[in-house]
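Why this split exists: single-chain examples teach little about how molecules sit against one another. For that reason, every record in the complexes split bundles all components of an assembly together and asks for one structure covering all of them. Below is a record exactly as it appears in the raw files.
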Amino acid sequence: MEITSSNKSFGGWTKHYSHHSSTLNCDMRFAIYLPPQTANGQKVPVLYWLSGLTCTDENFIQKAGAQRIAAELGVAIIAPDTSPRGSDVADDEAYDLGQGAGFYVNATQAPWNRHYQMYDYVLRELPELVEATFPVSDKRSIFGHSMGGHGALVLALRNPDRFQSVSAFSPISNPVNAPWGQKAFSAYLGKSPSSWAQYDASLLMRKATGAVPALVDQGEADQFLEEQLQPETLEAAAKASGYPLQLNRREGYDHSYYFIASFVEEHVRFHAKHLSA
Amino acid sequence: MEITSSNKSFGGWTKHYSHHSSTLNCDMRFAIYLPPQTANGQKVPVLYWLSGLTCTDENFIQKAGAQRIAAELGVAIIAPDTSPRGSDVADDEAYDLGQGAGFYVNATQAPWNRHYQMYDYVLRELPELVEATFPVSDKRSIFGHSMGGHGALVLALRNPDRFQSVSAFSPISNPVNAPWGQKAFSAYLGKSPSSWAQYDASLLMRKATGAVPALVDQGEADQFLEEQLQPETLEAAAKASGYPLQLNRREGYDHSYYFIASFVEEHVRFHAKHLSA
């Protein structure tokens, strides 16, 4: 593992690392924020952030302003890249398939299946690396935006023993019924929708037994709201299964990082409460 | 004037505009943050931000996290670009001269003098446009980073009647004795250093009569500290003239926006106090 940058921020440290991922079969980058509480060796819980389409390990760490609250509350943040990367990694010219668009699934279809195993990478390899390397505990929560909100919800719903809480901004709530999800799942998982259900937050929440507390924020001026995001399917699923979901609709907010920055404090406080419980 | 983007943030609005500048003889972009207090027509004071080398109207507005505090305190923020722009505007291949490197001076030398009049643009044309267009008062403060910290200090020191307060992160404190300043001033103002003194914060502070309260933050791990920034010259000038300067040295912090984000709340609160006095 190699450190590529290190910047003091809010009394702690924002750092970027690169490492070889055996799960993804390529070199990967991730960002970490280590709050000031770790300076004396104190182990802090970890909050994983999953970014949306076209993003890297940099967007959230530069634009969301989460370090300020993580420093106050003593939480580490990890932000991985959104897909495998490299000149020998399968790609597509479209922004919503291939590199930058891993959708946090384990691909089963060629040529994608050689590298696109983001579900396993985020669930297993990355936490094992983080917990073996940094002064962090094994308490984990997870959140994300858009494609990453979908990823966070799916990972928490399928692994309630691994996460204390989950939240999402503008998640793709029902990808099996949304153009982004249908395109990506067809490519990565094949044409049969029966293999898609394990990666659909609304379908998973509807039959959830374990219950990781969930918080979702959705801007009402989001250009992708009706066609791609469909938060009403998540609300209906939570109602059907009695799932502990709080979903806030925010008047006037769009799909951008300005929306995330405006409400990230509430999300980090929500996770810190569950991480320290 | 044309609006190019508008994003709700922290209950207010982050917007970018383009307009034709008669001072700069080209089209220019700037960002504005209008806090929620302006929604009912309330006039709020304005805090101008001047960015550093290579930056545009976007860097501060996306990375510093200042909107949160501006929303709380009811202050508008204006972030102009760092130079005139365009294919017919003189430029240089170096990052520290030409487009992206206007140094907030009025150029007197060809070919720069046709467009590079950033001092007058920030002092006169931009505030006139802002105050005629948006629900803001004529109370102004100014701050900036690096080249923009130099610009903010120079504008406030030379125009104490125009600004309530001034602050800077990692300013080029004594450009007549720093490589960045010597290169830019030679090009824009000519080889004679006698024309440079009017744009040197340390020389101006040493003989200041009016006194706009000044706050400076400087990271001690800043790679440009000794050669380019020289905050000790500003401290010596303030001591000589009894200038109301508070200069904080911050252990471990570098020249990046992570440093700015870590302390921007203190700066915005400093300005808000003087803007409401």
